[in-house]
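Following the same procedure, backbone shapes were mapped to integers, yielding the entry below.
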Amino acid sequence: MSRKRKELPVLESIEITDVAAEGKSLARIDNMVVFVPYAVPGDVVDIRVTKKKHHFMEGTVLRFHKMSPLRQQPVCPHFGVCGGCKWQCLPYEEQILWKQRQVMDNLTRIGKIELPECTPILGSAQTEEYRNKVEFSFANKVWKVFPDQHPEGLSPVVAEVPDDAPGAVGFHAGGAFDKILPIEECHLMDPVNNRIRNGIRDYCYTNGLAFHDAREHVGLMRSIMIRLSNSGELMLLVQFCIKTEQEHTQAMALMEWIKQNYPEITSLLWVNNEKFNDTFGDLPVQTYSGTDHIFLEMEDLRFKVGPKSFYQTNTRQAYILYKVARELAGLTGNELVYDLYTGTGTIANFVARNARKVIGIEYVPEAIEDAKVNSELNGIDNTLFYAGDMKDILNRQFIEKHGRPDVIITDPPRAGMHEDVVNTILFANPERIVYVSCNPATQARDLQLLDAQYKVVHIQPVDMFPHTQHVENVVLLERR
């Protein structure tokens, strides 16, 4: 006989007192912490508990008794449904203060090392339409919202989907890999994203193109990726799942329609992905019209970015981030610099003119090829780039061959650095390490491993992603 699940309570008239991780806020009740999304400090709410553990609970706002004076009206009509910009209800000036607190909380609580005072966070001058890349998925199943699923006062809006429509285009719904929340209006990028996405959606509706079924693995339309350059170029990549000649004909007809109706697209690409996931790094990308790349500009440099290239998604703020890294590196023109996780060599090329030599290492071969092109394009001849797994390439033999670096700049993925990489850095024994991180929690863990030989002397948070919980942090370490 199955055990009857205990009914979880509704907590009434609870005041939200703090901001927590993952875009949530929190309240404290009888030494118990409760985490809830879409609330801000000062709100008084009823909370429907969805999970209860020994020391914390999770829940959703059922209704508001009092709106916080901090609360502001979100700009996006999908707020409260789409999970992409959970802090829109909090003024931006407050968002960045909480982000700085979270950075220091992670470094202190997880790192447990001696730290200097944190330099005030550098906020983003542009808080809407700041992304240069967005991706939208297609699915034959639509994620629907019912009034009793969301709190009174938030009034979530979902794009209308006709009853006979083959599906929806938008963002994946949380916890449902095969369902899509339809998006009518996204403020993360220039409004061109809305025109292109909605136009392709309507074409698919009119012409009967099948939306992808992630469970059955059939359906032509999988996703679109839009990349926008600050030099005025625009890339669109359409990802299909073509299994028949008829589907190929439909796909090419769509590509021709896009070409004719969106002349501003300078790089029109497509890929056929018959795999069980949406990643296409191992698949050939076809150019339908225009070039197979766009260029992004920073100072007097131009960077070639292809469909598989990594480039910071906030172009303006990336410039601020890289200037911070270059300044903290303290380069005089005589240094050998290692740039770890170099991507398309953006940081490497950005600092190369201030260094004797820069060596960049990156896992993705296509990114390394772009890095080499970017050096050549900008007349930079003091860089070397290597492709492969960081922990396999960066070893003692590599250092003995290329020389001990004076400065290491490292910008790892969210998981941080592999312990073998940290140990090799310690062996390399550079004078300074500039650690750029998109995840202060894993950064704190790595700083603890480096602490025996290096002291943190500067902390500079940089906000790259307004209205989200994400924050970049740059730390300078000096050899003890």
